[in-house]
């Protein structure tokens, strides 16, 4: 940052969207709820890019998040009056098209904002030439070369490099009131405005890293403010949570907060949970900087105010991540309901009957059959005596998995097990996509800003890490396998002199999970040092795989973040080939963390303080008193 530039007050950057389909009124609530300088919205995920491609295939003028226009109409006039800049990644696959629509919406309101858009991420039509120039586009997790796909005739329908925040900063510096971006990293929506506001330099690594941390926290909207939070009893205001605000200071530190008189909670716990959400190793690479999340410090700075400080940054690698999607074929799912006695025998008979009618399971490219046991013996209600047999088929031939499949399930109605019925009528097939994460040399990407007068600004890449620095992002980290011992850095917990008690893990620790392409991450954190010492020593990759049977046989990567009293796990391949292709009932692994917390484990009795032995209430709920709070578990 230039030394002769006066230090400005922190910039208040608000979020009004965590996904495509989030609350339409969130933008208005953030603009009307209190002072902000920049309004941001995150609309894109790997699955969203495929959804937008399907929309653009039907209408070449589509390909962007249409809901943003409805939000914009509610707030544009107020934002222009108050000098609030708007920065969104709603441009998706067609940022120029959305920028044009923004201008039309503004004209209909009698307004004339300056609208800029960012380009350069879309590599879909350049894959062939880039491969010829030496880009391998190997799969980030499996190492499988893209050439194998190309040889079978597969072509990506989307391929978008993740851009950084300097294009946004340039657009704001040029006077843009609204900045529309395509596929930038989620954190770039905060990095760009913060760098513009404070006049940061490209090599202000720690400042930039601090903005990445703040951006990562607020990108998912109310998840930073008590939404999806493990310790429900801490969220005493059960109104819908407010959307988050990051007050980013000139030194890169920030305060995460929300508007007054909104629901939810902003605490060290809620911010910790979001920092752990959908990450892998603590060195979190972005196009502008590598933010080291194992250096972040969190402190409660007041009610609903959490300070993020101390984040260290280092130069980015010479590659950019690319999110590719290609069409994998067609799929269909039917769910059969089984009731009462002989559940497993009924399921086995139904599976055999159905596939006998369809020519065998080998007639399909892929078959996934899951028996989901919700049934209780001697249930007080009919619904509580049921289980589900969920059958999914995939194939390149849409007719094979369409009504031919779902109609066949109905043949079991009179000739199958007793009590047969399904959760839905027969359904048609649907196309599914496969996610392919990869890398591209950043010099192959031309990051540009297009201003409202048609002028373009070329955005150079930042200085990158030298070859002798830490391993580049292309190199996967060496991490413990499920059979490996705990990391040598794990603090050792002494033997428990007071004995142990068996309780649900979640009575001691919080957790948050999510998807990273075909992988799932589960970040687990403790609220005090003693519990973290036990957690870091006890919850090895092997122990995690024991608690999560689905993870057995898969690579489990384990990372410690002692500064957050946390351990992060990445289960490689748990979600198959990505959300759009996954047959798992929870394809984005959103509930995986709560499943882990529900598992019963032996813990030192002294951690269950001051009561050493859990007690049960009249209805059977388990309670443990801890830190003057009562917390309920299953």
Biggest sheet strand order reads 11-12-8-7-1-2-3-6-4-19-20
| Number of strand elements | 29
Strand content: 25-35%
Cα shape: globular
Helix count equals 17
Mean pLDDT: 91
- Detail the poorly predicted runs: 469-492, 610-634
The termini sit apart by 52 Å
Q: Rg from C-alpha positions?
A: 26 Å
**Which structural class best describes the helix and strand composition?**
alpha+beta
Helix content: 10-25%
* Largest sheet data: 11 strands, mixed
Highlighted features:
alpha+beta, disordered C terminus, eleven-stranded mixed beta sheet, 26% strand, 25% helix, six-stranded antiparallel beta sheet, 634 residues
Explain how this protein is built.
- By secondary structure, this protein is α+β, with helices and mostly antiparallel strands.
- 25% of the residues lie in helices and 26% in strands.
- The strands form six sheets. The protein has an eleven-stranded mixed beta sheet with strand order 11-12-8-7-1-2-3-6-4-19-20, sandwiched between helices.
- α7 (166-173) packs across α8 (188-198) and α8 (188-198) packs across α9.
- The longest helix has 16 residues, at 67-82.
- The protein is globular, with a radius of gyration of 26 Å.
- 49% of the residues are buried.
